[in-house]
Amino acid sequence: MSTTASLPVRLEALLGRNRVGATEDELRKFMIGGRIPSAVLKPRSAQEVAETVRFAASEKLALVCCGSGSKLEIGMTPQRYELALGMAGLNEIAHYDPADLTLSVDAGLPLKTLQMALKQKGQFLPLGVPGGESATIGGTVVSGIDSTLRQQYGTARDFLIGAEFVDGTGQLCKSGGRVVKNVTGYDLHKLLIGSLGTLAAVTRLNFRTFPLPETCARHLSSFSDAESAMNFRAALLSSGLPLSNLEVISPEFSAVAAACLKAANQSVPASPSSSGWNVYAACEGHEAVVRRIARELESLTSAVRAKKSETLSASVGEALDDFLREAYDHLISTSPSVVLARIVLPNFTASNAMEISRLAQGGSFRCAFALRAWGVAYLALLAEAEDAATIEELSCAATIVFATVAQKRGTATLLHAPLAVKERVGFWSAKPPDFLLMQRLKAVFDPQTIFAPGRFAGGL
Amino acid sequence: MEPALIRELQSLLGPANVLSQKEDLLLYEFDGSVEKARPEVVVFPHTTEDVSRIVKLADKYQVPVVGRGAGTGLSGGALARGGGVMIVFARMNRILELDLENRRAVVQPGVVNLDITRAAEHAGLYFPPDPSSQKSCTIGGNVAENAGGPHTLACGLTTNHVAALELVLPDGEIVRVGSRHGDAPGYDLCGLLVGSEGTLALVTEITVKLSRKPEAVKTLLAIFDDVGDASHTVAEITARGITPAACEMLDGWTLCTVEDYIQAGFPRDSAAVLLLEVEGLREAVESQAAVIAKICTTNRAREVRTARDEHERELLWKGRKNAFGALGRLAPSNYVLDGVIPRSKLSEALQRIQEIGKRRGFQIGNIFHAGDGNLHPILLFDPRDADQFARAIAAAQDIIRMCVSLGGALTGEHGVGMEKNELMPLLFSDADFDLMRRIHDAFNPDSSLNPGKVFPLSKGCGEIRVRKASRNATARK
Fold first, then answer.
1. Smallest Cβ distance to B180: which of A167, A342, A346?
2. Can you tell me the distance from the alpha carbon of B42 to that of B27, in angstroms, rounded to the nearest whole number?
3. Domain segments of chain A: what residues?
4. Do B369 and A181 touch (CB under 8 A)?
5. How far apart are CA B236 and CA B242, in angstroms?
6. Do B188 and A210 touch (CB under 8 A)?
7. Looking at the structure, do residues B208 and B249 belong to the same domain, yes or no?
8. Which of A65, A205, B342, B473 is 20 to 30 A from B306, comparing alpha carbons?
C-alpha cells in the first residue's frame, strides 16, 4: 500500500512530469469544504483519464473530477479526497455537424467557448446556467445546476443524447450515440446528470443543438404582495403562452438583483427598491411570435393589479437575464454566510410559496426567494456574519425549511452553505424512496468507492 | 410449469385472472415483431400489490416473469422468451389522477396511450408521444420501450414526458422513482428505467407530463418525382434550424399500396411524398409553413398541398398511420425495421436500402420519420417459406449494419428486445456491456425479469441467463 508522500512521484511516472500539480496554489484551487487534494492530475485524453482511474482504484485513492472548480462546493464534502482530476486538458469539440444539429464535445471545454463555436453556425445549447467564462460543459452537466431556459427547452436530460465516461474500474464506457432519436441500450448518460461526479469520470458529452432564436422579449411586473405575483404566474402558466423563462422573485431577491444590475450600470425599472414581488417573463423565437407574446403579456398584466409592468429594453432585459442565469454565483457571494437551497413541491400555490419564503424570516439574516418555471424554487438565507450564533441561527432556519418541505411531500436540496450548516442540515430534506437503488448503482459504477465518496448524502 | 404455482396464482388473483390452457396461451406468443415465444401462464393483476405477490410467487418457484401491455411492440420485448409467467397489465387500466392545473396525470400501466389524451383534451391538454399503434398500445409498454412516434421530432420520446414511476423489483419490493415536478434528488432513476425494456423492474404506475395542445396546426403534403429530392428537402429543413412537429416520408411504392387501401389522396405516380406538420402559435405556424413550402419547391417538389381542414388532415395521417396495415394486404407477413441515421445521410441510406433489397430479393418499402433520421424499411415475406424468412432476417441485419456504418444506431423507438440483441456488439464494446450487465444484475440478479432481451446471448453476456429453460418457450420459429 502506498503512502501519500510519494504519491506525486508515482503519478508523474503514470502521466508524465508536467501533468501532475502539487504546488500549494494548484491544490487550493480544487479545495472542497476545506479539504485539499494531495495532487492535481492533468490528463489530456480519455485514455489518460482511464489510466488515472485504474491507478486510483488499485490504490483506493479518492478522486474528484474538476472542471473550472466553480461548482465544487455543491454537495457534501467528500469523506476522502486524494486526487483532483483536472479535466481542462480534454477540451476539443470532437464532432459538430451543424446540418444535423448534433454535437460531441470533451467534458473539459468551457461552456462559453462551446457556445461561441455554435453561435458561428447560428446555433446554441439551451443551458441557461451560471459559470461565467470558465465553467466547463462537463462540470455544468454533472453538477445538475438548473437552467433558466428549462420552461421552453427542458433540462440537460432532454437534449443530452449520449456520453463517454470512465467507470470506477477504469473502463472507458459509453451510452447513447450521436443521433437525435435512439433507444439502443440503457440510458446511462442520464444517470450522470447531477451525479456530482460520484458515478464516473465523464470524458465526452453528446448533445442535440438548437437554432439561435431570431429575437427575444423580456417583461417585468411588480406587485405589492406575493399573492398577486403568484396569481399572475398562474395566469401566465394557464395562458399557454410559450415562455422561455418565468420567475417569481421576492423583494430580497429583487434587492440582490438590483445591486448586481447597479454594478453593471443598469437598474431594475419596475422595482427600484425591494418593496415588491416581481414576475419576470421571457420569450424567444420568431419575430412575429415574440411580438404576439409580448402583446399578450401586456394585456394579461392589465387584468391584474400590477404596481408596474413593462417590456424591458434590450439592455436592461439582457442584464436581468444575465443576473438570473448567474444567480447562483451572485447569491453565494453576496454575503459572508449564505445558505442556498433548491426546493421542489408537488404544487406551488400562492399560499405555500409564501409560507416557504417566510419560514426563515425574522432572524438576523435576509431571506431571498425565487420560483422558476413549473415549480423549482430557490431559497437563500443571507447573513452578514460568520460567528457561531449566526451559524446556529442559519442551521435552525434551514432545518425548519427542510422539515416543512418534507411535510408538504416536496424535496429540498442544499446547494450551498457554510460547512457547519451543511453538516447539521445534510444534503437533502429526506432520503428519497429510491435511495436503496441509488446505493446499488453507486456500487456498480464505482465498486472501490473512489469517485468523490460521500459527496451525495448517505455516503454516496 | 408446476401445477402448484398455477393453483397459487389462481388463489391469489381468482381463476378468471389466470390463463394456463394452451389455446389461451397461443394468443400471447406473438407481438408485432416476427418473433414468437409462449408463456406458460398468463396473469392479470389489478393492483400493484398483486404484481408484487405474483413476482414473489414466481421467485418461489424459480420461473421467469415478463410484463406485457397490448402486445403491439415490434422487437419482441413483451414475449416470454424464457417461458414462465406473463403479467398482462390490461386490467390495470385506470387513470388514477388528472392534475390539469399542474399538467400531470397519474396512470396505471394498462392505460391505452390515446386514452390519456382523451381524458385531458377537454382542458386543452394532451400526451405528445404518438406511436402509430396509439389507439391500442399501453403507456406501460411505451415506458418500457421508450416509444416514439411521428411527433417525437419536436416533442421528444416517452422519456421526455414521464416524471415519476412506481416499480416492482424482481424480489417483489415496491419502489418509487422520479419526481412529479422539478428534478428528482439524486440519480435520475426514472431516466434509466424508461426504455430499459422491462429488464430492470415492472412499472406499475406512471406519472406523465401533459402538454398544451397547440393553438394552430398546418399539415403539408409535398410531392416529389425523385426520392433524392425529397431526402434533400428533409436535410435542408433540418439544416435551416426548422423543427416541424412531424416530417414523415413515404416512398412511391408504399404510397400506391396505401392509396389502394385508404384513399388518403396520395398521388400514385410520384416517387415520394413528405408529410409535414407545423404547430404552435398561429404566427409561427404561418411563417414556418411558408418557409417549408419554399424549401420543398426549391428542391423540385412537383406540388405542395396544404390540408384545408381537419378532415383532410386526418385523412393524410390516416394514410400514414395505417400504412403498415395496408402493406399487410400484400403478403402473409411484414417486417417493420427500425434504424436511425444522421439526418444528413438520408439520401445515401435510402439508396443503400434499395441495393440491399435487390441483393436479398425483396421489394423494400419505406414509410418513416424522416425528420429525425428514423428509418422504417418494410420487408414483405411469407414466414412459412424458410428461405424467404432467412433472407428477410439477413436483409434486416444488412440494413441495421448500414445504419451503424453511417454513424447511426440500432433502434430509434422500437427497442432492442430479442430482435436486435445479437447486433448490439455493432455499437457497444465489451466494457459497455460489462457496465450495462452489472447494472442489469443490480436490479435483476437472477435474470428472472424478461430474460433473453437486450443483451446478446452469443457474447460473453450469456450470464443474462434464461432461468430454468422451459419446454414450451420457443424463440424465433
1. A346
2. 10
3. 4-88+446-459, 96-211, 215-324, 328-425
4. yes
5. 9
6. no
7. no
8. B342
- In this structure, the answer to whether residues B264 and B354 fall within a common structural domain is yes
Question: What is the CATH number assigned to the segment(s) A4-88+446-459?
Answer: 3.30.43.10
Same domain, B175 and B197: yes
End-to-end CA gap in chain A: 24
Same domain, residue pair B304 and B287: yes
Mutate to test the interface with A, among B187, B295, B347 (most CBs of A within 10 A): B187
For B396, the domain range is 216-405
Q: Please name which of A245, A282, A240 lies closest in space to residue A155, comparing C-alpha atoms.
A: A245
Q: Does B409 touch chain A (CB under 8 A)?
A: yes
Domain C-terminal end among B177, B212, B247: B212
Beta bridge partners of A220: A280, A310
Question: Is B246 part of a structural domain of the chain?
Answer: yes
The two beta strands, A39-41 and A20-21, are: antiparallel
What amino acid is encoded at B347 in this protein?
Answer: S
Specify the CATH number of the domain A328-425: 3.30.70.2740
In which residue are the cell numbers 416529389 written?
Answer: B224
Look-up of cell digits 428534478: B183
To probe the interface with B, which of A165, A182, A286, A289 has the most B CB atoms within 10 Å?
A: A182
User: Of B374, B405, B436, which marks where a domain is finished?
Assistant: B405
Helix or strand holding residue B219 (H, E): strand B216-224
3-state SS, residue B338: coil
Looking at the DSSP bridge assignments, the partners of residue B275 are B221, B248
Q: Tell me the pTM.
A: 0.95
Residues B167 and B32 in one domain: no
Which residues of chain B does A428 touch, with a Cβ-Cβ cutoff of 8 Å?
185-186
Amino acid B329: pLDDT: 85
One of 3.40.50.10170, 3.20.20.70, 3.30.70.2190, 3.40.50.2300 is the CATH number of A215-324, namely 3.30.70.2190
Q: Are residues B196 and B161 in the same domain?
A: yes
Tell me what ipTM this predicted complex has: 0.95
Residue range A96-211 forms a domain whose CATH class is alpha beta
- Residue in chain B lying closest to A456 (CA): B186
Of B212, B372, B443, the CB nearest to A240: B212
CB A22 within 8 A of CB A11: no
Q: Measured between beta carbons, which residues in chain B are less than 8 angstroms from residue A100?
A: 238-239, 342-344, 373
A346–B183 C-beta distance less than 8 A: no
Cβ neighbours of B290 in A, within 8 Å:
none
Among the partner-chain residues A155, A172, A411, the one whose CB lies closest to the CB of B179 is A411
In a domain, B417, yes or no: no
Residues of chain A contacting B374 with CB distance shorter than 8 Å = 181
To the nearest whole angstrom, how far is the Cα of B334 from the nearest Cα of chain A? 22
Question: CB contact, 8 Å: B157 with chain A?
Answer: yes
Name A65's bridge partners.
Answer: A85
pLDDT by residue for chain A (460 residues), tens digit each? 445 558 888 999 999 989 999 899 999 999 999 999 999 999 999 999 999 999 999 999 999 999 999 999 999 999 999 999 999 999 999 999 999 999 999 999 999 999 999 999 999 999 999 988 899 999 999 999 999 999 999 999 999 999 999 999 999 999 999 999 999 999 999 999 999 999 999 999 999 999 999 999 999 999 998 999 999 999 999 898 999 999 999 999 999 998 888 887 776 665 544 678 999 999 999 999 999 999 999 899 888 888 888 899 998 899 999 999 999 999 999 999 999 999 999 888 888 888 888 877 777 899 999 999 888 999 999 999 999 999 999 999 999 999 999 999 999 999 999 999 999 999 888 888 999 999 999 999 999 999 999 998 777 8
Q: Do domains A4-88+446-459 and A215-324 have the same CATH topology?
A: no
- Rg of chain B over all Cα atoms, to the nearest angstrom: 22
In-domain check, residue B469: no
Closest CA to A50 of A172, A155, A144, A186: A172
Phi then psi for residue A329, to 5 deg, are -65, -40
B50 and B109, same structural domain?
no
Residue B475 predicted with pLDDT over 90: no
- Give contacts of B124 with chain A, Cβ < 8 Å: 240
